[in-house]
Amino acid sequence: MIWRYSKYLLALSLVLLLSSCGSLKRSPAKPKAKSGPQFEHEILNSKKDRSTKAKNKTEDKEENEAKESAVDVKVSDLESFIDDWYGTPHRMGGMTKKGVDCSGFVIIAYQEVFNREFQGRRAEDIFSEMKAVDQDELQFGDLVFFKVRGRRIDHVGIYLGDDQFAHTSSSRGVMISSLTNVYWSKRFFKGGRYQG
Q1: Disulfide engineering: 187 pairs with which of 96, 118, 134, 146, CB 3.0-4.6 Å?
Q2: What is the CB neighbour count within 10 angstroms for residue 165?
Q3: 146 pairs with which residues across the strands?
Q4: What beta strand segments (E) does 129-172 contain?
Q5: Is residue 161 part of a domain?
Q6: CATH number of the domain that residue 152 is part of
Q7: Domain for residue 86, yes or no?
Q8: Catalytic residue numbers?
């Protein structure tokens, strides 16, 4: 009987020894619960981060809407300006509705619509005040420059989008033309974006 009892104790000891060494399978550990913030400032900061992100999203949305609204206003202002000047005859050096040349038209439009001024008077002078842009980078309000009679920039217009530009034609006065027109596409030099 003592022998049986000592066998039982020995087996029990062995089981305990093996389980403490890890050779017996253990029951899977319970997943740890995610620990929340331990201090009040962590709670406040996480709420503040969420509210700051929400505030930033709102501000970004409002800023984008304001920009779009400003662009819409400029589009309608420029359209009104062009309508008002449409058909004004070409006059070299002219700056009135009795007659205007291409650079005069651009200078007046930029003053009245965009509230911007140029130092120069000729198309090539205006180009020197702009940041050059390629045709595929043109945006509403950029200028388009042409070399009509030779190697010098001698014509300028205002880009309206969709390959359309407003300018003063020597034969038809203030009008809208297309950059895809063969005449203009052959003579297109560069776009220009106001830097001031």
Answers
A1: 146
A2: 24
A3: 155, 188
A4: 130-133, 143-146, 155-161, 164-169
A5: yes
A6: 3.90.1720.10
A7: yes
A8: 102, 155, 167
**Token reading at 16:** 């305990």
Sign of the torsion formed by the C-alpha atoms of 120, 191, 163 and 92: positive
For 45, the token pair is: 């900061």
Say if 23 falls within a structural domain: no
Phi and psi angles of residue 71, each rounded to the nearest 5 degrees, phi first: -65, -45
- What single-letter amino acid sits at 162? D
Domain that holds residue 158: 73-194
pLDDT in tens, 69-83: 455 668 889 999 999
- How many domains, the chain? 1
Q: What is the pLDDT of residues 159-183, one digit of tens each?
A: 999 999 999 999 999 999 999 999 9
CA–CA distance, 143 with 180 (Å, rounded to integer): 16
d(CA 179, CA 142): 13
Q: What angle do CA 142, 184, 80 make, to 5 degrees?
A: 45
3 or 78, greater pLDDT: 78
